[in-house]
UniProtKB/TrEMBL annotation:
The keyword Heme does not apply. This is DUF4220 domain-containing protein. Keywords: Membrane, Transmembrane, Transmembrane helix. Residues 46-300 form the DUF4220 domain. InterPro entries: DUF4220, DUF594. It comes from the Eukaryota. Pfam families: DUF4220 (PF13968), DUF594 (PF04578). The keyword Transmembrane helix applies.
Amino acid sequence: MAVAAPSFPGMLRVLALTSLFLQLFLLVSATFRKYRVPALLRSCIWLAYLGGDALAIYALATVFNRHRQTASTDHGSVLEVMWVPVFLVHLGGQDSITAYNIEDNELWARHAVAMSSEAAVAVYVFWRSWSGGQVPESSPALLLFAAGFLKLGERLWALRRASFTRLAAVRSSAAGRRTPAREEEEDAGDDYIPLESYVHLASGYVQSQATGDHVPRPKDNYVFHVHPLIEPELQDVLMELFVDFPAPYPRRLAYLRSFLALEDDDAYEELCALLNQAFQFFYTKKEAAYTVVGIYLRTLHHAPGHRGQCKLQRQSQGRICALLWLADWRFVTSRILPEMQRTVAQFNLIGFATRRRWPTMVVMRIAALFRCKKYVNQHWYLGHLSSTPIIIEFIGKDLKSRWVDDLTNAAAYRRGQWTLRRERCYQELGWSVTELPFDEAVLVWHIATDIYLDCNNGIENPPATADERAAVKCSREISNYMMYLLLFQPDMLMPGTRQSLFAVACREIKHALRDQRQRLDERGVARWISENPNAAQPGDHLAAARKLAEAMMQMNDAGRMLKVISGVWVEMICYSASRCRGFLHAKSLGAGGEFLTVVWLLLHRMGMEVLADKLQKPEIPRHVQILP
């Protein structure tokens, strides 16, 4: 017996209810993109974001085909006309998720073409129903159509406003405008102050913050007028940073002075607040809603219709939307679901190789049967630690010491040379940061750090002082995070990073353990590599790491080596953050953010060089000595 096809009104109801369900799911879950949630939920949010638009477009196309093929004289066409603007409102999306990836903002023109075609379909359906006398003049469909069109316009405005192409053009034109503060700076000639004078004055700020003294005057005839940033300019400054615009020295001095006035906890919270503001700008409507165009569209969208029409219902809906808008789902505290930018991803190479050789879970053995053990192992044992405030404070202390101790090279970070020269071990260890490419240096120092700490300063012999304990903790976590970047985010680690180095190093460790039949843990593998000279073949990364660890052990000064290891890792992560494009930092915010972006913003607020400052700075005078 043949099964009757569902009627058109029934199918339309199914499409409408499904679309409504997806919009409600996005309303509740879109904000969770910033938090460390299971990968399955993140995938569901992505599918709902894509499926919500596709379902609304399909529903509008279905209504269009029905009106094109029939005269639509039945009573059901009135209900169809009511559903069409509802689908338009769904196409307008939720306020908390205008873009899922940063590329969605760049494709705003494509979205505009697609939405224009759907708006044309809605106009056609409405015109056919209006000309047939099925829609009265007092029908609420008119108000729903207006709300749907304004909702589409608001989404397109948010996408276009967050486009990097438009953002760069707008910031370029705005850079030529003269605000009162900039007029005074230009009159004083502050846009052309030399690097040497900037470094001397910045060093004076750091010293005065530590001692409470007045800022010393520079040794030349330049006069500095540093103005604190006002709140409206903060958004512009943040966007210029993401589009890789260089900051003049007076403005960098303003960043440094305002940031040094904050306590450690307040400084960390300010960095997270700035990144949250950037997330709202690129991926939500919140920042666009407070512009002139956004306020105009939102006012019209929520404008009342007829005087007595559903007044109580509109007021209640407005209050609920306002509460959800202001709350921003802040009931999700960091204790339950920490934000991704407030966590440090952890991935250890030796631990991965150990679990790969001796799987300890049934899941790993099942994955081995399906030949996906490597993929499961990488993602299953990927950890996250909520110790970002400690590491940021640790890096901040190193930044301040550079401003005070090294006046010739404080504005830029190297790959570890400064620490090795400061601790007077450049001759023994300098080859590891100067003769190796950066990605290989990260790999070698990662293995050497595990070997040294596990063999000399592990759990059985904990450090005595709080500074040493902080150095051990931060060194391990930064090392594991840099290895995570090498494997999962190679573009952010450094342009041209070879992700294949990870697989090469795993093969080297596997070859080193070829004769080892006893089951070892991570610490045991590190000791095995250290105690067996034949474990590594000459010329490979494992041999270089073992050579580096042996050089550290021969110095017989654990406290000094902790300063060296922690200092080198701070330099490496700052070197990587300062050379990562702002576009990649903005892209990472769509997946919750990266800890490297927090370090990048810390460098910016501390007056250090980021990528644009390094590429656009003038030539350094000959009499200023720069470390190689």
